[in-house]
Amino acid sequence: MPSLDPYESLGFHCSLTLRAFVGALEAKLKGTGVSPAQFVALAHLTALGPLSQSELADRLSITPATAVRLIDRMERDGWVIRQIDKQDARVRRVAPTEQAARIWEEVSRAGRALLEQAYQGVHPAEIETVKRVLERVRRNLT
User: Fold this and answer.
1) Mean pLDDT, to the nearest integer, of 98-118?
2) Helices (H), 94-123
3) What are the angstrom distances between the C-alpha of 44 and each of 27, 51, 57, 134?
4) Which of 32, 74, 23 is nearest to 53 (CA)?
5) Per-residue confidence at 3, pLDDT binned at 50, 70, 90?
6) pTM for this structure?
7) How far apart are CA 65 and CA 84, in angstroms?
8) CA atoms of 90 and 108, how far apart (whole Å)
9) Taking Cα atoms as reference points, which of 46, 43, 54 lies closest to residue 110?
10) DSSP string, 21-80
């Protein structure tokens, strides 16, 4: 049986690309007080509204314990609040604050600049094709 060449794998390329994105994002966020993990958490909360702690952990691909520490820091900084879920009192929903909206306004400019840098020389239709392919791959794997 032939061995696997990792460079044949979309997952491998996605991993390499993610590392490049995170490194570049970290550089763009320097001086804002926002880490890449906080940036992604704010992105999800801004786009989707309140999420349970476990939903946020799943979206960030981190353990529940790591999510609690991240949420604790964001709560301490005034960016999120924990709310009791109306359907299930055992569940805590993480909601962005008005301060988070102001922070997001600032750091999303850094995110936009990062995308402009990353997409240089890539046609928008190619980007849309990659998104569709990766979405299909994710569906196949879940």
Assistant:
1) 94
2) 98-118
3) 21, 9, 11, 19
4) 74
5) confident
6) 0.86
7) 19
8) 33
9) 43
10) HHHHHHHHHTTTT--HHHHHHHHHHHHH--EEHHHHHHHHT--HHHHHHHHHHHHHTTSE
